[in-house]
Amino acid sequence: MDTMRGKSAIVGMATAGVGEAPGFSAMELLGQATVKAVNDAGVKLSDIDGVFAATSSHAFPTMSVVEYLGLKPRFFDGTNVGGSSFELHLLQATMALEAGLCEVALICYGSNQRTAGGRLVSMSEPQWHETPYKPRHPITAYALATSRHMAQYGTRREDLADVALAARGWANLNPEAFARGPLTKDEVMSARMISDPLSKSDCCLVTDGAAACILVRADKAKDLPGKPVYFMGAGAANYHRSIVAMPDLTTTAAAESGPRAMEMAGVSQKDIDVVMVYDAFTINTILFLEDLGFCPKGEGGRFVQDGRIAPGGELAVNTNGGGLSCVHPGMYGLFLIAEAVAQIRGDAGDRQQADCNIALCHGNGGTLSSQCTAILCSEAAL
């Protein structure tokens, strides 16, 4: 399992169009992020011979990316398992690099969801067994999981509010975050109800945005100008697509993907300096902290109380502001990686965590469906 540990490194990382980018298509934003990532890596666009992409606007994402950027890759993969695709792409790109199938790999995503329509919708449409109930997709699905967690473990709306407040606290330290400014618990608790028990404050943003990263084999990373961030391990798990087929609404497949990633990386929860989890809704953060082993099952609501995951708390979670307050352009998984890279490189400004060497990124796809965990580290932690 540890044969992939430390075999690849992210040598270029960039975002573009975060928040609102009127006048640009999803592919144009993706292209902007890619050019910036290439420049950050100190390579040429023409050096890219491996392409990994998933988008919410292209049925054949790698073909669209290749055509738009003028690439001629030797290896490409358009696996789309929702917002967790990019954590999985880290593993796939590492395998392709290690196998010699490519030398310079691009992972990329772009969306103009806000300026193109501005609605919180999911690619994973309701399945036939959900449709008769006319869910507001995907919010209704996450509301079901929230309600069950509340009933089973006593989780309260106040606990969900602590997640939203922590995200905003981090966003206020991030100049790139879309939602900044003061936010009180009273404001969160009194926000308009969308799908009981989830209010507007419990739901992720709808923004534009693109991100891209460049990976090479670890031995090549030392020849490039930037500080490399190494792939340490990854794992994936998937039980269902439709929320009504989820075996247990209070336990996600992160309970398997997390341990797989940590086994490959050779680390445990106590080794992780920053945690980036896909917070499409406030319940996600609670579920994933439990399933990834940062607190016992059922204790997530109590775990996030009193600013524990906010700036100054004992566990740094979603230090960019997350999908709740920083950016959420349809699929958020690559932005988890972007923030992890910034923290490990020491480029996170006012939100920078001291001695940050190991970051966990956890992606979520569909309605708590595909779960992919990736662990990144500095050279010192290898």
Automatic annotation (TrEMBL):
Record-linked Pfam families: Thiolase_C_1
Organism: Harenicola maris
Thiolase C-terminal domain span: 235-376
Signal sequence region: none
Record GO terms (molecular function): acetyl-CoA C-acyltransferase activity
Name assigned to this protein: Thiolase
Gene3D superfamilies reported in the protein's UniProt record: 3.40.47.10
